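User: Round two. Same drill as before: sequence, then structure, for each protein.

Assistant: Same drill it is. First protein:
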Amino acid sequence: MATNMFLSTLVRLKAELGLDSILNSSRDTKLLCLQRFVRLFAYGASTLILALYLSSLGISDARIGLFMTLTLLGDVVISFGLTLFADGLGRRRMLVVGAALMSASGAIFALNGNYWVLVAASIFGVISPSGNEIGPFKAIEESTLAQLTPSSIRSDIFAWYTLLGTAGSACGIIVSGWIVEELKSVSGWPETRAYRMIFGIYTFLGILKLILSLMLSDACEPMPEKEERHAGVELDTMEVEGLLSDDESDTGKASNPKPDTTPAIRKKSIWPSISPSSRSILIKLCLLFAVDCFASGLVPQSWITYFFTRKFALPEGQLGTLFFVSNIISSISNLVASSISKRIGLIKTMVFTHLPSAFFLALIPLPNNVILAMVFLFLRSSMQSMDQAPRQAFLAAAVLPSERTAVMGVVNVVKTLSQSGGPVATGGLAGAGKFWVAFLIAGMLKMSYDLAMLKMFLGYKSREEEDSVKGPTQLEESRTNGQA
C-alpha cells in the first residue's frame, strides 16, 4: 500500500513538474533547450567578469556603463534584422549566423583590450551584460518551440526551456569565478589575462552552439500556410479572446477557395505580416515590457556582481558561488511557476511571483552586512524568473502562429532597447557614489509594471477555454457567423 502511494506521488510529481512533457518532446525541442543551456552558460561565465575585466583595463565606471548601453543598442539592430527575416530566410540559418557572431565577439574579447574595439565587437557580436538573453536566439527559439509543442503542454516546455537557461547561467557563473580565482592565486596570472581565458571559453561555446544549430531538422522551419491552417485547432486555441477581428476571419475563409496560390505567395515572401488585432495587443505588451526592462537595465547582473565586489570586497570564487546559488534557486522556481499557472492562470502567476521579487530587489543595497544583502538577493532570486515561462506562453497565445517569430522579435527588440538606457544611468550613479539608488528605482518600476499588467490583462480568456464550453456545432456556427 505504501509503495503504491509512493509511486502514485511520483507520477503526480512528474506531471506537475512537466517531466513527461520534456522527456516525450521531439528531438528538435530537446536540441533547442540544450542550445539555450550552452548559450546561457557562456553568458553567465562572461557576465561575472565583464565589468571587472573592463575595470582591470583602466576603464571608468561611467564608461563601463556606456559600454553596456552601446552593447544593448547594437543588439537591437542585429536582433531586429535577424528575427525580422528569420521565417523568410530560414530559422536554422539565422541561428547559425547568430552563433558565428557570438564566437567572433568572444575571440576579439580574448585577444584585444582596446575600448572601442571591444565596443564594436559587443555591438556587432553577441556579449551579454546581464547574463540573460541577448541576440536573436530567444525569439526564434520560442517561436519554433511554440510550433513544435501542443498547446496543452506548452507551459511545461517553456518552463523547462527557462529552467535550463537559468541553470546554464548558474553553472557558467561558478565555473568562471573559480577558474579566475585559481588562475590568479595558484598560477599567478594577472587578473586581465585570467579574465581573457573566460572569453576564450566563450568562443568555444559559441562554436558548440553553432554545431547544435546545424543539427536541427526541417520541422523547425515555418509551416506552409495550408499546414498552418490544418493545425489551427492545435495552434490557435490559445489565442486571447477578442484578438482576432472579423476582417481577419474573412481573410482566413477567403483563402480556402485558393489553397494553391496564397501559400505560394506567403512562402516566397521574406517579409513578415502582423495582423491589426495582433498589433493592438503587441503595442500594449511592448509598453509594459519597456518599463520592466528599463528597470532590469539599471541592475543587470554585471552591475550587481560589481556592486558586491565594491561594497563587500568578495573575491571571484566567492562571487561565483553566490550567484551560482541564486541562479539555481531561480531555476528550481521555474518549475513551480508552471504548476501554479495551471491553477490560477498565466497573468496571475506572472504578477504574484514577480511583485515580491521587485520588492526584494530594492532592498539589496540597503544593509551594510553582506549576509543580509545575500538573503535579499536569494529571496529575489526565488521568484525573479517565475514569470518568464507564463509570459512566453501568454505571448505565444496572443498572436497567430505565422506571426510569432516576428512578434517575439519585435518584443525582444523593444525590451533590449528599453534595457539599454539603464546601464549608463547606473554607471553615472555608481561614479557619484549613489549605486544604491539604481536598485531602489528598479524595484519601484518593476512593481509598477506588475500592477499595470494585472489591471490591463486580468480576465482575458484563451480561445481554447472559450471553445471548451461550446459543442462542435455551436463552435462551427459561431465561426461562420464571425466570418459573415
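Second protein:
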Amino acid sequence: MNEWMFNWHFTTTTCNSGEIWANCFLRLSYGSGNYDCSRLGSLRCSGPALGGPPSTAQYFYGAYSIYAVEQYLSTWSQALFATKSQPAIGNLVSVLSAPGTPNLTTSSLLAALVSNYGLDAAADAALVSILPSGRFATPLDMSVKYFSPQLADILAQVLLGAMKDFLQAGFLLLSEHGQMMAYTGESLARLETSLAGNAPESLGTVQAGP
C-alpha cells in the first residue's frame, strides 16, 4: 500500500495550487473539497463509510488512515488536558528533570507519557519515533503550572507535518503495515484512566524517547 501511496503522490496532477497532499487525497477520494484532517479536533475530518466513496480499496485505506491518524493524535491531545491527567504529567516532569539529567524538552516529556500510558503499542512507538529531537526539540517551559498546552503544540506540529509533507514520512510511519486500519480509536476515557494510574517514581522505571 505504501508503494501505491508513493505512486499516487508522484503522479497525481489534480491537486490545487497550495493544497496539502492529505486534503487533496480526501477531496479526490470523497469527490468534495470540504474535508480537512490536518488540525487537531477538526470538525471537517471524517472516515469513509463502507459502500460509499471512495470507490477503490486503495482510496478507502488511504482516507481511513488519514482520518485515524487525526483521531489518534486528537485523542492524545484531549487526554493530556484532562484534570485527572495533570498529576501524571507533573510527576514525570519531576522525574525527568531531576538533578543530573539532560535538559527536559517537550518531546522527551511527551515520549515518556506516550510510552508509559499509551494503549496502542504500534501507533505509540511510531509517534515517539517521529517527535522532534536534537536541535529541533523545544525546551520545556518549566515556569508554567500546566504543561498540556506545550504538549498539544507538539502533537499539532506532528499532525500538520504528516498531512502537509508526504515525504516527511510521518504519515507513512504512523500508518505502516495498515496498523491504522486496525485502529478503532483509543477511548478518551480509557486513556485518561491510564494517565490517572500509577505514575513512575524514578528515572529507571520511565520509558523515554527523544
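Residues 80 and 148 are 6 Å apart (CA to CA).

User: Perfect.
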